[in-house]
Amino acid sequence: MGLVHANIDLINGADLVLFRRGYIKEKDIKKMKVKALVDSGAYMLAINENVKVQLDLAKVDEQMAELADGSKKKLDVVGPVEIRFENRRANVDAIVLPGDAEILLGAIPMEDMDVMIDPRHQQLIVNPESPYLAKKSLK
């Protein structure tokens, strides 16, 4: 199976809370569309330092992580981040990879959104058998 990428929206979760409570305007919510590698071998959402800065995400923790080259490194964990894909969303923390590393959509946010990899078409899809399939507005 080849590599699977998906276009997802990443949103500063703290900004969403401030907007919903009337403290900031919708235009002030920091968000971006990104192309992420769908990586069921990764646990978390992994972003790079540039995304962390653009979304102005706060550090909430540090965590030891094993990188693709087998090295282990202590990395920042930031959040909250809301991920949106089609009619799904998940609120997660993200681990920050060094430099401009590729964004990874890991198993935990995929499970939370009830999405899956379609190997035949090599794409991320909403689980077609999901009881959560009722189309709800994300706003």
Overall tally of structural domains: 1
CATH topology label: Cathepsin D, subunit A, domain 1
Give the strand order of the largest sheet, numbering strands 1, 2, ... along the chain. 1-2-7-3-6-5
Tell me the total number of β-strands: 9
Please tell me how large the radius of gyration is. 15 Å
Which descriptor suits the 3D outline?
Answer: globular
Which whole number gives the mean pLDDT? 92
Helicity, in percent?
10-25%
Would you kindly provide a written description of the structure presented here, covering whatever features stand out?
16% of the residues lie in helices and 45% in strands. β8 and β9 form a beta hairpin. With 139 residues, the chain is α+β, with helices and mostly antiparallel strands. The chain has a single domain, classed as Cathepsin D, subunit A, domain 1. The longest helix is centred in the N-terminal third of the chain and has 8 residues, at 13-20. The strands form 2 sheets. The chain has a 6-stranded mixed beta barrel. The chain has a two-stranded antiparallel sheet with strand order 8-9. The mean pLDDT is 92. The radius of gyration is 15 Å and the shape is globular. It has helices spanning 13-20, 49-55, 107-113; strands at residues 5-12, 31-38, 45-48, 58-66, 72-85, 88-97, 104-105, 115-118, 123-126.
